[in-house]
Design brief:
By secondary structure, the chain is an alpha/beta fold. The protein has four helices and seven strands. Strands 1, 2, 3, 4, 5, 6 and 7 form a seven-stranded mixed sheet that branches.
Length: 195
């Protein structure tokens, strides 16, 4: 599903048999590291949103605001439940930038449409099934963080969405045909052609 012009939906995990545990992995371009310092190249940031019931697009609105304000980089997982916005953040966020991150998200969460969410920030390494949070976050966030590559990574050519389509077999077929243009042979062109 398309949720935003600023986000790409990498993966949607459905609810389990109890109607719980659905989450979406998003990606977006990132030019800053978790401590708000400029990166040497544009990177990709992947993060998850654990849904309570059906997707709450108000969370998407907050994510878009965080992108505009430049405070999304440390986020690895978000979950809104019962007036609280749970934020699992990257352990690489240093103490000098932590307070600014928390204050920025407090401001963002307070503007949730028809609500005022209180943010609760938890370092990703301490997200376990014993962390003080809502039941859904305790039950599903640890597994989401453990089983998905979340955070900021370099953008590489193998991330190109159509990379598999460019495999020679997909372009030319399994057996090259006589006269196929598998490679361009410039010697076969007539030297007398004038441009």
């Amino acid at each position: 599903m398309i949720y935003s012009r600023l986000l790409y939906t990498e993966h949607e995990h459905p609810h389990n048999e109890h109607g719980e545990g659905a989450y979406t992995i998003f990606s977006t371009q990132q030019t800053r590291n978790v401590n708000s310092l400029p990166l040497s190249a544009v990177c990709i940031q992947k993060f998850a949103v654990l849904w309570e019931g059906r997707p709450d697009t108000r969370v998407i609105d907050l994510i878009e605001e965080s992108i505009v304000k430049g405070v999304l980089a440390p986020v690895k997982l978000l979950h809104a439940s019962e007036g609280t916005l749970f934020i699992a953040y990257d352990s690489m966020l240093d103490d000098g930038h932590y307070e600014g991150f928390v204050n920025a998200w407090a401001d963002i969460a307070s503007g949730a449409l028809y609500d005022c969410w209180t943010p609760l920030s938890i370092v990703d390494l301490k997200v376990t099934n014993r962390v003080e949070s809502c039941r859904l976050f305790r039950n599903y966030a640890p597994e989401i963080l453990e089983n998905n590559v979340l955070g900021i990574t370099d953008f590489t050519s193998d991330m190109f969405l159509f990379w598999d389509e460019w495999d020679p077999e997909n372009i030319f077929g399994s057996e090259p045909q006589e006269g196929s243009m598998a490679r361009c042979d410039f010697d076969s062109f007539d030297d007398d052609i004038k441009f």
